[in-house]
C-alpha cells in the first residue's frame, strides 16, 4: 500500500470509510452521515471524531453541511479527494488482499478466523 499523503493520519482513512458506508444508501452526494454516526460506526468517542473531521475538512477530504434547522447538526460528505483516498487505501487494498490470500484453502481460512477470534476473546478478557 502506498504511503498516505503528507499530513494524513491512518485514523482519517477509517473515518473516510465510515462516512462512505453511512452515505452509501443515499448516494455519496447526499450527506446523511453525522459525527455521532461516524463515532458509533467506529466505536470511538464523538470528540475524537469531531477533531479528525475538522482536520479532514481543512485537508479537503470532507465537506461539512450545517443542518437547516439546527446548524450544529452537521452532515458529512466526501470530497472527490476523499473518495479517491478511499479508493486507493480501502478498496484497492482489499482487492490486493483478496488476490494475495486467494490461494488459501477454506480450511486454512476457517482455522485463521478461529485463531483470530480466540485471540480477540483472550485480549478482551484480559482487559477486565
Plain-language structure description:
InterPro entries: HTH_MarR-typ, Iron_dep_repressor, MarR/SlyA-like, WH-like_DNA-bd_sf, WH_DNA-bd_sf. One of its GO terms (molecular function) is DNA-binding transcription factor activity. This is MarR family transcriptional regulator. Residues 1-125 form the HTH marR-type domain. One of its GO terms (biological process) is response to stress. The chain contains 5 helices and 3 strands. The chain has a single domain (10-103), classed as Arc Repressor Mutant, subunit A (Orthogonal Bundle), CATH 1.10.10.10. The chain is globular. Helix 1 (10-23) packs across helix 4 (80-101) and helix 2 (35-42) crosses helix 3. It has helices at residues 10-23, 35-42, 46-58, 80-101, 106-127, and strands at residues 33-34, 62-65, 75-78. It is 62% helix and 8% strand. The protein has 128 residues and is mainly alpha-helical. The chain has a 3-stranded antiparallel beta sheet with strand order 1-3-2.
